């Protein structure tokens, strides 16, 4: 019994210190101590043909989050060498709750198709600004299939905030998702609309436009106040 308690305590401590882990597309690497290092949390991002294919028109993104609250930025680039020239692919997402969450209907510019690229996830949390990246191969088309692994933990909530990114205004009422016990423990957070939990996942409606850069950011965004390294 004592051994079980010890192992359980170590597992909980490990999860608590893990900040966040990009589950899909798979992270280029995770180092808890280096995760505050831009642009990819200290990971060595290697581009090759074996990296997963991501459809430019629609794809899902899954994250394991260990912080009770977060402010998330999602970007992508085809600059696999310099890891620069990132394009913002979603309005800022605010989350509450701990566990896995999934954003569906993510998209990147159509001209990314046919190129290797990198998806970057940035989280402004109680531990500061944290980074992870996933090397991918962008292809044309849309992936509308959402598996059982694309779900939110019970009680998890994700809301896209109303911000202005280079003139693009996102209304928070158009993009929110939540999960509850009524959802049998999970719900899917959507990039494009409000998702109501039903069964294990929930889908979304209405697509959000792609915004590039951060120079036009307005609304007192905490990520910039926290010293986001671009």
UniProtKB/TrEMBL annotation:
Which key words are in the record? Cell membrane, Glycoprotein, GPI-anchor, Lipoprotein, Membrane, Signal
Membrane topology per record:
Lipid-anchor; GPI-anchor
Task: Please provide, in alphabetical order, the Gene Ontology terms of the cellular component aspect for this entry.
Answer: plasma membrane; side of membrane
Under what name is this protein listed?
Copper acquisition factor BIM1-like domain-containing protein
Q: Which segment of the chain is annotated as a signal peptide?
A: 1-18
A Pfam family for this UniProt protein?
Answer: BIM1-like_dom
Where's the Copper acquisition factor BIM1-like domain? 17-155
User: What domain of life?
Assistant: Eukaryota
InterPro entries on file: BIM1-like, BIM1-like_dom
Subcellular locations according to the entry = Cell membrane
Keyword match Membrane? yes
Q: What is its main location?
A: membrane
